Amino acid sequence: MGKAERTKQFIIEKTATLFNTKGIAATSLLDMTEATGLTKGSIYGNFKNKDEVALEVFRYNLKKVTGLVSEEMARESTFRGKILCYPRIYTLFDDPRFPVGGCVILNTAVEVDDTHPLMCEEVSKAINSWKNTLVFLINEGIQAGEFSTENNAEDLALQIIATIEGAVMLTKVSGKIAYMQSLMKTVENLINSF
Amino acid sequence: MGKAERTKQFIIEKTATLFNTKGIAATSLLDMTEATGLTKGSIYGNFKNKDEVALEVFRYNLKKVTGLVSEEMARESTFRGKILCYPRIYTLFDDPRFPVGGCVILNTAVEVDDTHPLMCEEVSKAINSWKNTLVFLINEGIQAGEFSTENNAEDLALQIIATIEGAVMLTKVSGKIAYMQSLMKTVENLINSF
Amino acid sequence: MGKAERTKQFIIEKTATLFNTKGIAATSLLDMTEATGLTKGSIYGNFKNKDEVALEVFRYNLKKVTGLVSEEMARESTFRGKILCYPRIYTLFDDPRFPVGGCVILNTAVEVDDTHPLMCEEVSKAINSWKNTLVFLINEGIQAGEFSTENNAEDLALQIIATIEGAVMLTKVSGKIAYMQSLMKTVENLINSF
Amino acid sequence: MGKAERTKQFIIEKTATLFNTKGIAATSLLDMTEATGLTKGSIYGNFKNKDEVALEVFRYNLKKVTGLVSEEMARESTFRGKILCYPRIYTLFDDPRFPVGGCVILNTAVEVDDTHPLMCEEVSKAINSWKNTLVFLINEGIQAGEFSTENNAEDLALQIIATIEGAVMLTKVSGKIAYMQSLMKTVENLINSF
DNA sequence: AATGAATGAGCATTCATTCAT
DNA sequence: GATGAATGAATGCTCATTCAT
Fold it and tell me: pLDDT grade, residue D3 (50/70/90)?
């Protein structure tokens, strides 16, 4: 990794929390220089503009979550066990290994859906990938005889994702972790009923 | 309604879409003057500041949804029928009677949770009220013998709300109405299984 | 005094402190409506504009001081006694009978000298009148044999006025009443040496 | 002196007259950009806000006067000669070497005394320093046998300062330079009588 | 005579971005 | 590759003033 690449990475990491808490529009270049200790010129030397940083930060924050999920899944041998990683991990969504500021997908989706088509597409892809992972795991579980053949993988995947995202929103805005616990228990029960 | 009250209402109605699509921070006073045809001075003659407009717009947009729900519920005689109004209405969330820009609670919650404590509290109250309505309807349904006594009203209410909110986010960002339909069908099934 | 005249007087009295502490430019119409409890419309119904209020307030505040001086002088039978009223009164310049905010002439002079020719002229007249009073009293005192014939009335009048005005400024900005006391003692000694 | 420091200095010098004639509140950012030829952004890149410029301008204008005094004093060998510099210099207070707009201390003191505690403190310090200089010179003059031991340095210093400040006010507002000449002659006589 | 509501120019300040060095 | 300095448009907000009622 060359110097340029290292600086880019440095900027991304140092501003990751900023973008995920304040949002893209409300994060100013001044916020970014303060968070990094770098100058505006330096940031513009490494990125085309603020939106490009925001995009890369989104990818970075997203990878942080998907990486966490992958790690946990690797330890599980059954498909049910693998899927159960999601409710387990999101129960601890203010764990230090989680991006500060809540779910990156939710935050970004809500900010950009009516205004930033490009970024919207990026979030859409992330969701699609998440859904595909779940669909794959459910179908594999069916084929492996772990789950009933009557399950509709697509619908179940959407249900898991929607409940998790709704749970994050409810928990963050109310400050009641009990909401997250109740809802993740519900998701868990759903998965155990496959 | 005096002139002042009418102008206030006019400003709220004309900027309601603006705030619910762009968000509070990204909606500028210029946007607001263009949407209303009024001057900045006129807006500040009727509201203390932009945040006050945003707050009243939130309440206005919220009432639009709750009003729609109330109307529909009034036509239903059973508790199950009343609760089923939610998935039915949200399936048509881009109906003209719905605030443009998606779910007000979701949009506002995500923008303000880490930054605007006062507005956050307002959203929190709205969610609590929604949840209380559902808990009440479920418990009444149980007492009326409509639903099994084994239902946990609180958990079910959360599940309905979380799924709806997650569904709105997924549908808006992906543009796939099918997501909303699949998820509202799931909520419907849940309610029918009470 | 008709209703209009009474309202005018009311506005002047209620804003007198405002103008003499904040200055003309820094006193806003909002300040004025808050101080009077009247509306902007009402103020504009009684005065052509803010500057006209400021002018009348200047005259009102000025009269407050000159009135105080006249009262005190009336009690004195000698010319020396009359002139000594000035240092005596200014020693108590934060007396409630004195306009709050310090010397009206000083405050207004410094604000308007480079910018408001009309108001400047008004202040200039006030100073001239003050000086003429002093010159008259000194000359009368000379003619009455109270003071030495070697006194130059004009120069002494200026000296008294300048010292008083300088004293007000020094005392207000430093907060040290001792400055006023020392300087008024000096003026007193000067008058006693006539 | 780096570029930033040079620009700062440039802004201070170009706006010095502005602040000393119109006052702080009445000097707008537009006035400042027109006086400097720079943009608002450039001014804010070099100063935290308008008040910071005003503060530095006050110090600059003050130094202009104290510098002038120091130069003149350096040429005098006696303490009396040194003190006499004050009335001599202020007689020429519209000399080009003098800040345009009159006495910085007077102008600033009157504007800020009731409203800007921080700036008020700054003016207070300037006055204290001026008084201390005079007290020092008088006491040294006494010790050197130049002046009578009966002089009260503190009182005399105050008298000189108050008369000068009062003189500036009277002269500026009336436009009569004769006032300044008469009053500075009085101060001169006072000093010669030490 | 007074009010409530509006105007539009003006305010101080911050923004994302550029570019010579 | 990075910096410091600048830009100019945009920000939220306040101003003195007007005028129909």
Answer: confident
Q: Which residues of chain A have pLDDT under 70?
A: 1
C-beta separation of C108 from D167 below 8 A: no
Contact between chains at B169 and A26 (C-beta distance less than 8 A): no
Q: Give which of A171, C11, D124 is closest to B131, Cα–Cα.
A: A171
Cite residues whose beta carbon is less than 7 Å from strand E.
A 27-30, 40-41, 44, 49-51; B 2-5, 7, 38-42, 45-46; C 3-4, 7, 38-42, 44-46; D 27-31, 40-41, 44, 49-51
Kindly calculate the radius of gyration of chain C based on its CA atoms and give it in whole angstroms: 18
Put simply, whether B129 touches A (Cβ < 8 Å) is no
Q: How far apart are CA D104 and CA A21, in angstroms?
A: 48
Amino acid A21 CA to nucleotide E21 C1' distance, rounded Å: 36
- The answer to whether residue D37 scores a pLDDT higher than 60 is yes
CATH, domain range D59-192: 1.10.357.10
Q: Does residue D180 come out as left (phi exceeding 0), alpha (psi in the -120 to 50 range) or beta?
A: alpha
Kindly state the tokens that stand for B16.
Answer: 């309601």
Q: For C3-192, which CATH superfamily applies?
A: Tetracycline Repressor, domain 2 (1.10.357.10)
**Sign of the dihedral defined by the CA atoms of residues C111, C117, C122, C126, in that order:** positive
State whether D163 and C167 contact (CB < 8 Å): no
Q: Which nucleotide is nearest to B29 (CA to C1')?
A: F12
D83 touches chain C (CB under 8 A): no
Residue A148, burial from CB neighbour count under 10 angstroms (0-12, 13-18, 19+):
exposed
Interacting residues of C157 by C-beta distance below 8 A, sequence separation 6+: C131, C134, C135, C138
pLDDT tens-digit readout, D61-106: 999 999 999 999 999 999 999 999 999 999 987 788 999 999 999 9
C-alpha distance from residue D71 to each of B153, C138, D81, D86 (Å):
88, 40, 13, 12
Residue in the block written with tokens 């003190």: D83
* Length of chain A, in residues: 194
CA distance C25 to C110: 12
Question: Dihedral sign, CA of B23, B25, B30, B32?
Answer: positive
Q: What is the CA radius of gyration of chain D?
A: 18
The residue among C104, C106, C186, C90 whose CA lies nearest residue D168 is C106
